[in-house]
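Renewal narrative, Specific Aim 1. Our central claim is that a sequence can be written position by position from structural information alone. The example that follows is taken directly from our test logs and has not been curated for this report. It begins with the structure tokens describing the chain, in the order in which they were read.
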């Protein structure tokens, strides 16, 4: 396997060019990694941890996963006890990304599973994955990682000393590399200082959404939910069924989208396609924003509901089918940001006041924290953008520490974490090389979030799912070429370009290629529709309609390829075909 320079410099994330012509690069100046990585410590047995164990095994590495609880699943393993110290989902939570878009790339979700999974079914899928690839034997449960520190000879060996504790007994280990898979839902963010009076005057109860498990404890209460992210919207809707009144405080413009897209299909399978991504890259940003706003407002007018305006510069999106109806029926009342609290009321920035508030529930997110890392490593980690490709701390002498799953994507984080794990373990195994530290630092600085024009607007740190996964796939040499597929397998090419960008696409070529990837892509809609086939009705659609659509799409792809081949884009070298 040839060594590749994994810096991705010419793979501009917003440019779908390399989807059509992946560029193979020679090993130029690279980050030094002459030491052999063999033993890998993995911290956490959630979705990222399981994928990391499996990828280590694929690369011939020796993984040891440390999980502080007694089971796998991480965040997605529901716990009734909110005081257990472990962050977990609430009882009614359902995934925001569909099963096909969230599946592990070589292990499709069962066809009889619903498209959007309750936490119990998602956990069962994790168990199936762990059993199938025999991952459990590599996990040490009820083991807490106390510290991860560089060895004295780290500059040459890249090794880490990991101290763990199991049932009160501490143990020290030496590992060649460490993969941190604790995610970004770790420490609740409770900004009480931003809400005068909440601690000194307010006589009611306040809590963070981490402590919320179900609505029963709030029956008959007047509840104020602060924060209109996915969690805040979900909880407000659920509380509206039992609470006397629910107020939802939002400080920023928010667009609400439904999991159910046109014709009843999962929204992400319809919208997350390489064709749509190509159009978004091709068209001016002002036009694409207008198209998106019009799309959002085609469901309901967000300005009438006080949620968002087309003049807004903010593009914060949440997934919630019920929130508009709750607002329409008055069971949820939208309010602006809270100015202050009195003994029993909340005063808002528009001057209005809501009296007799019993409970304030802060859905204000989480702060990621790595208390086990030594200070010299931990202090530069301000956010995921301070990491190279949102994975590697660029200041380390040896690239043997990877922070997994910390990236926030517009699609499935599980799929993003898996492609991260494939690239990282390939680097550990010596198949790929990172660029020099100076180039990684320059890349990190270039991708820092811009200074906000309006300090009251929250930072939108989410990255495009296709941009990010394609970028990492390019670094790992597993990104498919659509034009090459068009020449060799037109049916598959059309499914890859016009169909949903499912994780199976990154198993078609390169290291870790899976023989079942083609079949998984061509049958993904069958698995999506299977759980809906519980009552068969007469189908009035013409059986030839999809064939005609395919015939029309074929010349469209040729036109796209022609336009790109005539583009004067600088720096392009059409060497991607040599990959195949």
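The sequence written for that structure reads:
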């Amino acid at each position: 396997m040839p060594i590749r320079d994994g810096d991705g410099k010419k793979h501009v994330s917003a440019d779908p060019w390399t989807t059509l012509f992946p560029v193979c690069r020679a090993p130029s100046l690279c980050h030094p990694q002459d030491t052999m990585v063999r033993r890998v410590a993995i911290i956490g047995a959630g979705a990222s941890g399981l994928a990391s164990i499996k990828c280590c095994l694929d690369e011939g590495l020796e993984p040891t996963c440390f999980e502080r609880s007694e089971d796998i699943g991480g965040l997605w393993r529901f716990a009734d006890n909110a005081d257990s110290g472990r962050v977990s989902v609430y009882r009614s939570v359902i995934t925001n990304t569909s099963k096909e878009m969230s599946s592990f790339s070589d292990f499709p979700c069962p066809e009889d599973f619903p498209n959007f999974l309750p936490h119990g079914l998602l956990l069962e899928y994790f168990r199936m994955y762990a059993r199938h690839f025999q991952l459990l034997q590599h996990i040490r449960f009820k083991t807490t990682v106390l510290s991860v520190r560089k060895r004295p000879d780290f500059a040459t060996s890249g090794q880490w000393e990991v101290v763990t504790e199991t049932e009160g007994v501490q143990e020290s280990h030496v590992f060649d590399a460490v993969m941190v898979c604790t995610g970004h839902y770790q420490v609740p963010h409770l900004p009480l200082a931003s809400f005068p009076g909440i601690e000194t005057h307010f006589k009611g109860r306040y809590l963070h959404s981490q402590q919320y498990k179900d609505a029963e404890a709030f029956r008959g209460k007047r509840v104020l939910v602060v924060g209109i992210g996915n969690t805040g919207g979900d909880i407000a809707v659920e509380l509206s069924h039992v609470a006397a009144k629910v107020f939802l405080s939002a400080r920023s413009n928010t667009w609400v989208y439904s999991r159910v897209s046109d014709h009843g299909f999962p929204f992400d399978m319809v919208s997350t396609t390489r064709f749509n991504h190509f159009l978004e890259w091709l068209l001016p940003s002002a036009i694409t924003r207008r198209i998106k706003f019009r799309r959002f407002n085609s469901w309901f007018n967000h300005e009438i509901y006080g949620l968002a305006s087309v003049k807004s510069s903010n593009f914060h999106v949440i997934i919630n089918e019920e929130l508009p109806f709750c607002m329409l029926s008055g069971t949820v009342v939208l309010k602006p940001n809270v100015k202050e609290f009195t003994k029993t009321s909340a005063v808002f920035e528009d001057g209005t006041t809501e009296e007799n508030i019993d409970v304030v529930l802060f859905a204000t997110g989480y702060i990621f924290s790595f208390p086990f890392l030594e200070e010299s490593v931990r202090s530069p980690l301000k956010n995921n953008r301070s990491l190279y490709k949102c994975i590697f701390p660029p200041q380390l002498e040896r690239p043997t520490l990877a922070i997994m799953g910390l990236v926030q994507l517009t699609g499935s984080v599980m799929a993003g974490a898996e492609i991260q794990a494939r690239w990282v373990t390939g680097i550990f195994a010596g198949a790929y090389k990172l660029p020099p530290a100076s180039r990684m630092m320059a890349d990190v600085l270039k991708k820092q979030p811009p200074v906000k024009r309006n300090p009251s607007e929250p930072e939108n740190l989410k990255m495009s799912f296709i941009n990010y996964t394609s970028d990492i796939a390019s670094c790992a040499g597993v990104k498919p070429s659509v034009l090459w597929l068009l020449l060799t397998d037109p049916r598959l090419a059309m499914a890859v370009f016009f169909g949903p960008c499912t994780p199976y696409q990154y198993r078609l070529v390169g290291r870790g290629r899976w023989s079942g990837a083609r079949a998984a892509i061509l049958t993904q809609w069958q698995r999506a529709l299977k759980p809906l086939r519980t009552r068969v009705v007469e189908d009035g659609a013409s059986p030839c309609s999809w064939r005609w659509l395919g015939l029309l799409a074929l010349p469209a792809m040729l036109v796209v390829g022609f336009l790109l081949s005539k583009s004067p884009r600088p720096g392009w070298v059409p060497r991607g075909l040599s990959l195949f």
